[in-house]
């Protein structure tokens, strides 16, 4: 049985339960109503000055269990998308898109 551990994973409640930030003021994060596959999404814009835009959410996982993360992503331009996991204070990185 699959259980979604993320709260507001479809962004139907906008930013609720998500932390959103950027590393430089020229970048942005928004939660528009009509740009995702099912309506809402998280939209991150990275300017020509680079930097990062990101969203995050903390969830508790149990040791010894197997977990799968899946999501839809759309990108435009020369921008990479990364997954970053923090497990017990150690960061694990996924490959860029």
Short description:
The chain is mainly beta and about 100 residues long. It is built from no helices and 6 strands.
Separation of the first and last Cα atoms: 28 Å
Proportion of β residues? Answer: 15-25%
Element string (H = helix, E = strand): EEEEEE
What structural class should be given to the helix and strand makeup? mainly beta
Q: Roughly what is the average pLDDT, rounded to an integer?
A: 84
**Number of extended strands:** 6
Helical percentage:
under 10%
Radius of gyration: 14 Å
What keywords describe this structure?
two-stranded antiparallel sheet; two-stranded antiparallel ribbon; 97 residues; globular; mainly beta
Which helices and strands appear, and what pairs or packs with what?
Blueprint: E1 19-22, E2 28-30, E3 43-45, E4 53-56, E5 84-87, E6 90-93
Antiparallel strand pairs: 1-4, 2-3, 5-6
Describe this structure in words.
With 97 residues, the protein is mainly beta. The chain is 0% helix and 23% strand. It has no helices and 6 strands. The strands form 3 sheets. Strands 1-4 form a two-stranded antiparallel ribbon. A two-stranded antiparallel sheet has the order 2-3. It is globular, with a radius of gyration of 14 Å. The protein starts with 18 loop residues before the first strand and ends with a strand.
């Amino acid at each position: 049985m699959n259980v979604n551990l993320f709260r507001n994973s479809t962004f139907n409640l906008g930013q609720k339960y998500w932390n959103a930030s950027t590393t430089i003021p020229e970048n942005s994060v928004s939660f528009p109503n009509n740009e995702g596959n099912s309506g809402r999404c998280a939209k991150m814009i990275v300017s020509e000055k680079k930097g990062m835009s990101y969203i995050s959410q903390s969830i508790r996982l149990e040791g010894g269990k197997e977990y799968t993360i899946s999501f839809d992503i759309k990108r435009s331009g020369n921008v990479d998308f990364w997954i970053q996991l923090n497990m017990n204070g150690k960061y694990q990185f996924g490959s860029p898109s």
